[in-house]
Amino acid sequence: MTKNIENLQAIAVGPSINLKSISQDVAPRLHDVIIREKERLSEFLHWPRYINSLDDTIRFCATSEKSFGNSNAIYIAEFNGELAGVISFNNLDFANGIGDIGYWLAGNHEKKGIVSNAVEALIGAYAGSRLIRRFVIKCASRNRPSRAVAERLGFKFEGTLEQAEKIGNEYLDQRIYARIV
Ligand SMILES: CC(C)(COP(=O)(O)OP(=O)(O)OC[C@H]1O[C@@H](n2cnc3c(N)ncnc32)[C@H](O)[C@@H]1OP(=O)(O)O)[C@@H](O)C(=O)NCCC(=O)NCCS
């Protein structure tokens, strides 16, 4: 783990929202939410359709715990102690100071500002530690709620990549947004 990231395993976003680095012990809670939300999440994410048994989620948590702060950094977002979703750096490129941000929420935690506030807090923490200066959000062009997160946070729309994202059997156009701090 990169040294400065040791201090970034827990990030307080506000009185109700916390980010905690992923660990194996969260697997049962995370698995319950993924299974409950699988169909909804599969509209814009490729991986949920491959999650079936608790072992799948345990493996994901174990791998992500090991790679935290190296090539990626996955956080569990809690709202008043309840697991609300996941906010992550899906890729961390320290050589170039670039972080690719991803997120998803359980349906009952949408529209509370959790992701927008958590992403802003992540940017503050990683830019403040001088680890990352270019923050990137990539989302399917037709994913309106995800586009709204990037736009709400002042990310600049840099362009569209045609058919750059495979979701299920469909290739979707992808919009790239970036914020440089
Ligand atoms: C993308 C996704 C995370 C966006 O969720 P979201 O709830 O719209 O985003 P936020 O948590 O930032 O909440 C913003 C909403 O809460 C409202 N809100 C309420 N209180 C707020 C606060 N204190 N601060 C900011 N926004 C607040 C905002 O007005 C906004 O609602 P609006 O779009 O109707 O104006 C969610 O739709 C999702 O999980 N989708 C499925 C997975 C997915 O597509 N992931 C992204 C792949 S690229």
UniProtKB/TrEMBL annotation:
Gene Ontology cellular component terms for the protein in this record: cytoplasm
PANTHER family membership: RIBOSOMAL-PROTEIN-SERINE ACETYLTRANSFERASE
Pfam name, any one: Acetyltransf_3
Lineage: Bacteria, Pseudomonadati, Pseudomonadota, Betaproteobacteria, Burkholderiales
UniProt name for this protein: N-acetyltransferase domain-containing protein
Domain N-acetyltransferase: 17-177
Molecular-function annotations in GO: protein N-terminal-serine acetyltransferase activity; protein-N-terminal-alanine acetyltransferase activity
Record-annotated membrane-spanning stretches: none
